[in-house]
User: Fold Replication initiation protein RepC from Acetobacter cerevisiae.
Amino acid sequence: MVAARTTAEALPLQAVEMSDLYRYLRQGRSILGLTCQQTELLCYLIAFTQPADWSGEDDVLPVSTASNLDIQQRFDLGRTRVKTLLRELAEAGWLLYRDSPNGQRYRRSGPFAPRGQQAYGFDLSPLARRFDDLERAAQTALWRQQEGRRLHREVTMIARTIYALFQTADEAGLTVKDRQQILARTSALVGQRGTDRDPQWLDPICQELRQIHDQLERDISYLQEVEHHPEETKASSLLTVESDPMGSPERPQYTNTNPSTLAKATVKADGFAENCIEATRSRPSSSSRVAEHQAPPPSAADPLRGFRAKPTFVLHIAPIFRQYCSSDRPAETQIIQAALYACEQLGISRHAWAQGQAVFGDYPNAVVIAAIAARTDAGEVRSPGGLLRAMISRYLSGQLALDRTLYGLAEKLKNGPTVVQ
Assistant:
């Protein structure tokens, strides 16, 4: 207790609000190492003080005069347990004992005597001296809570994307190696998630799911290349094996650092360093090569065909975007980022999204996904990923009339409870 008193009194007093103390103590108690009983006991002792006691002046100290009997009746505890809790808080430096000559806790105030100098009981000034620690602990606890929720949702989104990749492979007639093992491991990881919101528990699960997802993307891309260009793939593999099977030990291994069109589109939309590094390692699919080498027809240069699809309009037709936007009037960059997350929730594969990004462009691709989400909510679409690929094919052939779809969605909204402006 003497060491804790010396450490606490070395810190300067700060002017704080009692409401902030209540909030920060309850939010950051796990970070501060306080139990629920200790936290509620501190809050109970704070209630015996006045706002003027927390002004930060040296001659005014926040002293609580609560008796042990009051604490026993408030928390329904025995006297020994109350004394143990108070001693633990004093040893941890959260309160100081101010003993009176007669051993009683009381407060006397006069016209010439400061309020804190004639008070005996529990000195709570360490809370004001360590207020910065309380605030940081509360912010850290809030961040952990939000991060845990985000990771909990991300596990579901990545798992759905993996299932969508298998569906895409089935539609293309591709056979993925170790299909049952991958599906079983994905289901096991989703089951391990449970209802826990601890980032330390959820982060390894998300990392392993991302590895499975990235490896599956590379396998499907390779299978598509083999299916569309079997002779070129076979010739390149034979040339590599016969000319230099082990690689020369005297020179470094050659690595192609020029990212593909699919990788550039993925990097541009994600905006995260870790995703950028992984995206540049992925192989381009056959669909991305079509987007790269086949230019859009002149008659359909603008996918929207003059329709002014503002971000507010996108939020109206696709309410799924709202959970990924920070305001009701987001910027186009926020809509693009929200479209990426909406694809995972709709079950649209990253291949299809990247192809639309390369063909339509950044913002028009987000509008296309918003239209698909609106039709999916209306029960008009069974496969959002298949619809996106069909719209890409129609656009490349000059047969896509996206403006009619958007006008139709606007008319539906005008007849509903909300009006699109």
Residues 233-300, 417-421 have pLDDT under 50 and may be disordered.
